[in-house]
Each structure stands twice: as structure tokens, then as C-alpha cells.
Design goal:
It is a single chain. The chain is α+β, with helices and mostly antiparallel strands. It is about 55% helix and about 15% strand. It contains ten helices and six strands; from the N terminus they run βββαβαββαααααααα. A four-stranded antiparallel sheet has the order 3-2-1-4. A hairpin with a 2-residue loop joins strand 2 and strand 3. Helix 9 runs antiparallel to helix 10. The N and C termini lie far apart (about 85 Å).
Amino acid sequence: MKQRITSIQVVPELPSHQQLFLNGTPFVVIHTSLVEKFGLRIGLEIEAETIEKIIAADEVIRAKNYALRLLREEKDNTTVEASEEPRSTGKPKIYTKNEMEQRLEREGFSTKTIETAIKELIHSGHIRDRKYAENWIVRRQKSNPRGKTLLKNELIDKGIDRETAEQVVSNVETEDEMKVALQIAKKRAKQYERLPIHVAKRRLHGFLARRGFASETVRYVLEQIF
């Protein structure tokens, strides 16, 4: 059954939103951009199906706005609307697709809304799993160095898809990995100084393997130390 739009009013406390009145009754508050997108105007008669689409589109905008507030640590706590271009103010924070999905789920957004919002955020460059993975590896190698295998597994555990994780980890130079492995192995080896060489070598081999270093890297390091 069609309903007639009898009024469209700006919401004082939400200047970027307007309230629709159907058949003289306050109905729903939606983002102003949707008024133009759906060609809404006073006197227009709309079907129930169109009303559902309007409500769904507004929920996507709300989900995107919430996501943008998470992605940006604004110094002035200014809300960034989904219809605006990304601003350079504040310190950006990178979320993975998986992390953002979880945050939106906790806020109560529907699965369909989350899927649409995430897709649009990826397209606009606000969610960049590859960039997240690259930054994470740099931080990891500085604070708690790991081998490629463990780095890849940890990225996958964080929700990065396997292909992206493998591509990013493959960019870690083998030479750099060997250098990192040798550095942490030298520190670890000091704990084995009083042990027989074959025992110390076995323990150091296990330590490096658990850190995710490749077998050829482990062999190289053991040759350098013993």
C-alpha cells in the first residue's frame, strides 16, 4: 500500500538528517543525502518496498559513519559523515576487514548492512587489509621479531585473508630474516653456554623453529653460532 509524504523536516539536533512524515505522521529520520537519492518530496506516494530500501540505505550510512569514527582518532572529536571526503586531521587508525565487521556486529548492525558498508569502505580506501598487514609486520619485527611462517599465521589469525598475508610476508627479504634470526639467536644462545654443544644446538633450533623461521634460515644461524 502506498503512503504519501506529507512533510520533510530538518532535525534541529541532527542538521545532516531530515524526518519524513507519512500521511501526516512522523515516520523516520534519515540522512539528507537520501532525500535527493530517492527523489523524496512532499506529495510523493511511495510503496512499502521503497520505504524498506530507504531505511536500509540509512542504516548503511549510520554503519559507515560509526566505522569512520573508529578509523579516525579526531583531535577535536568531530564526527566524520560518510558523505564527506576523508580529512587529514587527526591520527588515522587502521582496522582490518575482520576487525571492523566485529565492531559493527557489536553495535547491532545487520549482516546485510555490514556487508554493504564494508564493501563501500574498502572501495573508498578506508579499510586496507594489505596496508594493515604491512604496518603490523614492521612493528612486529621491531618489537618481537618472528619468522615468515609465524608472521603469516598471525596475520591470518587477525582476519587477513591467506593470499594477502602470503603476498605481504613474501616481501620480507630472506636476507633480512636471516639477520633478524641471527640477532635473537645470539641473545638466546647465552642461556645455553653451560650446556653441551649438541644440546644447546637442539634447543636453539627448536626456539627458532617455534618463532616461525624457515629451516634454511635456522641452519644458517646455527652454522654462524656453533
